[in-house]
Specification:
This protein has about 160 residues and is α+β, with helices and mostly antiparallel strands. The chain contains six helices and five strands; from the N terminus they run H-H-H-E-E-E-H-E-E-H-H. Strands 1-2-3-5-4 form a five-stranded antiparallel β-sheet, sandwiched between helices. A hairpin with a 3-residue loop joins strand 1 and strand 2.
């Protein structure tokens, strides 16, 4: 079996294993109330949309319930409905702003499934373009993003707020 090393994830892994992160990054972001600082681009009644600080692509966001739950069956129907409604609106916003060729939506539930934030359910929404999976990450230790998180925040906040 061959393995690929992803050095661009080092910053994330250093944060996670360094003992300096809050108990839950999503609960911490909600408690801070400064949405520009925490990169929350939209707050709904039961869920919110937040930028991924370690995005795979520009526009990579997560839709997160306010309730600290780890599984879908722990969410009430209204929370699940709002998550899907926000997923629709977020997809439309990302398609309008970024003009992607496709979209990934998904959840990683549990460590074995690849969850980076255990214990707090979240739905990833990522715009994708033909050819966006290149060799820069594996060979150049570089992740190519055409815009800064601040710019992504401003663009999405304007549409989703």
């Amino acid at each position: 079996m061959d393995y690929l090393w992803s050095p661009w994830r080092y910053q994330y892994m250093a944060l996670v294993t360094g003992g300096k992160q809050p108990e839950c990054i999503f609960c911490d972001a909600l408690a801070r109330k400064d949405d520009a600082e925490t990169l929350i681009v939209h707050r709904g009644e039961k869920t919110f949309v937040i930028l991924n600080r370690f995005p795979y692509t520009s526009g990579h966001v997560m839709i997160v319930p306010y309730a600290h739950v780890s599984e879908l069956n722990s969410c009430d129907a209204a929370t699940l409905a709002e998550m899907m409604k926000l997923a629709q609106g977020t997809e439309m916003a990302l398609r309008t702003i970024y003009k992607p060729d496709g979209m990934n939506l998904g959840m990683n539930l549990g460590r074995a499934a690849g969850a980076g934030v255990l214990g707090h359910l979240h739905l990833h929404v990522l715009p994708r373009w033909i050819g966006d999976s290149n060799f820069m990450t594996a060979t150049g230790e570089t992740r190519v993003h055409p815009e800064e998180l601040k710019t992504t925040y401003e663009r999405l906040h304007k549409v989703l707020a």
